[in-house]
C-alpha cells in the first residue's frame, strides 16, 4: 500500500502527464499507515479527476498541514473548469464515495466541489482529526 513517501513518485507521474502541481507542506508527517494511505488516496483521486476533467492549461496546488497527534488537513485545488462536465464520480470509478468512505474510517470530513466565485476550478478538502486511543 502506498504511503506518504510515495507522494513524490505520484506527483512526478502527474507532472509528466502534463499537470503542473505545486505543493506546500506544514509540519512533519507522523501518521500511522492507515492515515497515510487515506491522505495518499485522496490526493491521488483529486489529481486524477483534475487530469481527466479540468481541461488544458490547468494547474493544481496541494496544501498539507500535519498537526499534533495524527491530525492532518489536506487541500487540493485546481484552476480548471467548474462546468457540469466534471462528474463527481467517473463512470466505473469509486471517486468521491471512495474518498468519503476512507475519510469516515478516521472520523474525518471531506468536502469537494467548485471553488467559490471569483475563483475558478475545483477544491477537495480533507481533515482527519487527532487520533483517539482505541
Automatic annotation (TrEMBL):
* CDD domains reported for this sequence: HATPase_UhpB-NarQ-NarX-like (cd16917)
Which superkingdom heads the taxonomic lineage of this protein's source? Bacteria
What GO molecular-function term can you cite, just one? ATP binding
| InterPro entries linked to this entry | HATPase_C_sf, HATPase_dom, Sensor_HK_TwoCompSys
Q: Does the keyword Nucleus apply?
A: no
- Fetch the Pfam families from UniProt: HATPase_c
- What top-tier enzyme class does this entry carry? transferase
EC number(s) recorded for this UniProt protein: 2.7.13.3
**Catalytic activities:** ATP + protein L-histidine = ADP + protein N-phospho-L-histidine
Compositionally biased tracts (Low complexity): 77-86
Query: GO:BP terms for this protein?
Result: phosphorelay signal transduction system
Region annotated Disordered sits at: 77-100
Q: Which SUPFAM superfamilies match?
A: ATPase domain of HSP90 chaperone/DNA topoisomerase II/histidine kinase
Alphabetical UniProt keywords: ATP-binding, Kinase, Nucleotide-binding, Transferase, Two-component regulatory system
Q: Where does the record place the Histidine kinase/HSP90-like ATPase domain?
A: 34-132
- UniProt protein name: histidine kinase
Amino acid at each position: 500500500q502506498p504511503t506518504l513517501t510515495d507522494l513524490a513518485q505520484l506527483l512526478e507521474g502527474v507532472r509528466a502527464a502534463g499537470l503542473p502541481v505545486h505543493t506546500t507542506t506544514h509540519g512533519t508527517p507522523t501518521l500511522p499507515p492507515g492515515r497515510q494511505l487515506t491522505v495518499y488516496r485522496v490526493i491521488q483521486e483529486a489529481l486524477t479527476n483534475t487530469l481527466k476533467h479540468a481541461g488544458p492549461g490547468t494547474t493544481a496546488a496541494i496544501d498539507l498541514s500535519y498537526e499534533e497527534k495524527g491530525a492532518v488537513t489536506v487541500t487540493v485545488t485546481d484552476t480548471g473548469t467548474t462546468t457540469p462536465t466534471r462528474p463527481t464520480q467517473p463512470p466505473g470509478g469509486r471517486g468521491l464515495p471512495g474518498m468519503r468512505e476512507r475519510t469516515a474510517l478516521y472520523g474525518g470530513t471531506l468536502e469537494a466541489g467548485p471553488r467559490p466565485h471569483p475563483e475558478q476550478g475545483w477544491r477537495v478538502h480533507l481533515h482527519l482529526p487527532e487520533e483517539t486511543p482505541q
